[in-house]
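An instance follows:
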Amino acid sequence: MNDMSAPKIPFNKPVLAGRELDYIKQAIDSGQLAGDGPFTERCEQALLQRIGGASAHLTHSCTAGLEMAAILCDLGPGDEVILPSYTFVSTANAVVLRGATPVFVDIEPETLNIDPVQVRDAVTDRTRAIFPVHYAGVVADMDPICAIAAEHGLMVVEDAAQALGATRNGRPAGSFGDMAAFSFHETKNIISGEGGALIVNRSGLSLRAEIIREKGTNRAQFFRGMTDKYSWVDMGSSFLPGELVAAFLFGQLEKLDALNNERIAVWNRYHAAFEPLERTAGVRRPVIPAVCEHNAHMYYLLMPDLDARTAFIASMKAAGITTPFHYVPLHSSPFGRTCSRVHGAMSVTDELSDRLVRLPLYPGVGQNLDRIIETALRSAGHG
């Protein structure tokens, strides 16, 4: 029986982790609130220390980072980019905004990441780039993807929105491709409300990335004394975050390991508790390849079918617990059908997107875990 007096448990809850408010005050006191100030630089250096790369460029969103990457790939009409359909719309929008065509391929059933076999089969003479997505903080199988790209002279842009702190074979997410975009949206492991970053691993792209982020001007070079004036030298837009956003983000970045460790502890509790569902209820838990260290960005369950998922979400909602499903595949979306093409069958994407449901996972949710787990087991038909 549902306890109507019990407090509701949201899917996500943004929290302060450290010195965010102190740093915001420092930014205000410094007199610089526009972007590219001291806290922007501190964030960029912290990201480079963790991921590596030639340069880091803080942005106002992961979407902005992906759009910068698409410009740096020189995408245009007639070009194609291979990516999964099971992703957020920003991955494809970055391609469409350049006039290029997203080519959707299927995902692996184990990780829900892009399938390298399907990628290889989708390459044509129009292909210019591959945009793999690291779903749920599990790094995609990047070695064959990068090998395909090298063979055909393609760019690789990692959509690492969910993957900060995750590794594959000891290498951090964001270090495999030519570029990688990260998100600091309030649903991510570390947050700034909105926010993102573009990591550039190909050194020859760093200067142009800096120009594109500054509305197509060489303003940053001017302030470094590299030119006696600044001017409009390339296409670009206003991709910078303000210093208040950067100050908040730096307070979170300092606590990344602690935040990830707390999430991993919650993830492990879920994973152990839901093992019986695989044996008795036809439910599948996440699969983490042995070569991967995930960051516990998300805990999901794959219900037996759409009807079972719908019933599970309704039962959890009645108990005051929010458990949303995730992406509607882009290849079947109204706009996706008009601006993209599909290569091969999308059976895995279609099936798993109908079955997936996400559980609450955020700092502090641990105090509610017993209630969430007990309700989930009951809602899934176990116990």
